[in-house]
# Entry
Amino acid sequence: MPKQITDSYRGLRQYIIIILLVAAAIPLAVIGGSIYYEYRASVREKVTTQLKSIVTHHKESIESFLQEITAAMRVATHLKPLDKIAQTEVLQNVFHSLQREYKHAFEDLGVIDSKGAHLAYIGAYDLLGKNYSDAAWFKEVMDKRVFISDVFLGYRQVPHFVIAVKEGEGKGAWILRATVDAARFGTVVENVRLGHTGEAFIVNKEGYYETRPRMAGDILEKIEPGSLDLAPFDGVKFWEVKDKNGQKVLRAKTWMKDNNWLLIVKQDVDEAFAEVYKTRNMAIALFVIGALLVAVVTFFTTRVLVRKIEKADEQKRALDEQLIESAKLASIGELSAGIAHEINNPLAIIGQEAGWMQDLLKRDDLKGIKEMDDFKDSLREIARQAGQCKEITHKLLSFARKTESVIKNVNINELIEDVIGIVEREAAVNNIEIVRQYDEPLPLIYGDPAQLRQVFLNLLNNATDALKRGGEIKIETGTGEDDSISIKVSDTGVGMPKEILTKIFDPFFTTKPQRKGTGLGLSICHGIIEELGGDITVASQVGKGTTFTINLPLEQKRGET
Amino acid sequence: MPKPRILIVDDEERFVTTLAKRLIERELEVVVGVYSGKEAIEEVRNNTYDVIILDVKMPGLDGVETLREMKKIDPGIEVIMLTGHASVDSAVEGMRLGAYEYLMKPCEIDELMEKINGAYELKTARDERIRQAEVRKMVDRRPG
# Structure
């Protein structure tokens, strides 16, 4: 097959494959993508809700913890008047009962009078006599009756915070002050665990850690500048940031303790969305598998399809060639007929003139001419050649004639037998055996007996010519496909090469020596068989012989017009 | 034996004249040639002919039409049609209309002579029968 055509099939195949793949991939991707994003949104919602609830819950528990301690201290100040509680033993009792109640969260406990002087103290440090009158917390507690400090290191270099409660008014007012271990308090927050990366911590409004964060920084260290928005707000805020390792982090925050402390709960996005990523990977895997499947199916289907098209094209090409061949024969036929007709009249005149001259030469007064023989010879030749031309034009016209033939029922076996009768004697002389293989009884066909005789006579004559050194001519008849009969005429003669076979039905094509054949015999046969709605084909092998096959329909397929 | 009077009709002038010369050479009588159907009909109307040699394919009035007209004028006239191969059908139709025979152009002079003689014999025989019939009729009519 030519390269161009192969390329065009490859192009067609690629085109179909691409179109099908695109058509399959787009909906697949759209469905997969939209399901994934829906799912992701719902998981995000879930994660957000979870973080928010943790934040809210812890805010409540820390605030209640602080309130509880404050309330307990308030109870103590109510129960014990200043003169009692300023006694070390009494304060000791209060300290121990508080320690029992709150699991040793207290570092120390002190009583301070309205002037800021330490009246009594229980704890590890010697703070007695220390005056707090200038301390900010003292002023605040005197003003607001309750004070809870931020975490600070203080004299002890240990993170802690102070709770102070004021009792009484005016000069008789006094303060019960407790130091709470910040680390101990922080465990409440620090114990928040959310998967592997989740944590909670508290930052004060200046941006210092109030509890120990699990991942980075330490208690009382300042947070990374700019990493946290410290503007106060109500309720819970939720947002997503990138930490310094480039890790995406989800955060929820809320202010508490009168907007002094910011509680933050965070979790890595990767962990929070692990489930989503798993789903995403599965979706991608499904998409790839689906796409591969579609690709494989597309590839094979297309291959089958293109092959079928290729085959159909091939058949069409073969059919086209046949059509072109018949059209060629028909046009040659018409052309030849036209020429033959035009030549006929001049030919008649030439013949007539030559005849007239011959007539004249017979006159008595011309008998004495010296060149008489030459004249006569010349004129005879003119007449003979004109006759030859007449033969040709008549054959041409019969090849192309459009006249109605005499159609009747014909028994092909009998008709062939008639024809064999004509050639048999000559065949015998040339040492040719004629083998008959008739299918009896053979259905009758419609045809013009005279024309059919001409066809078989032609074929038998050709076969005889092909068998120069004797041989066998075999004639087979039989019923063929589609209500037709087939006749095969084969010889064991010299055969023909392919170049000749393709031209064998062309008018004027002959392999016979000049003047022996007109080259019209087989074209006339072809015309007659076609006229009857049949076909004639030839197969030949050089040195082995030639077979002509004729198929004729039982019913006359053409209209009898 | 009297010689047949011949009329040749063909649009090819040279064909007519030469054929006429050849037929005269063969001692046929009053050979006249015309070059169209119209002229031929005129000629038949004005003169008596035994055999007409008529080309089928002519411009204007063709052979078959001409033949039909001639037979109207003189049913006893014998016509030999000359035809190219393609117009055999017309020749067949001509014979249905009463033509004696057809010949394919170009034709051998001897063949043509044969047909002319055949046609003429037929005509004379028929004319003879007609004549005898007329004689009998006259005899029968004679009051007796």
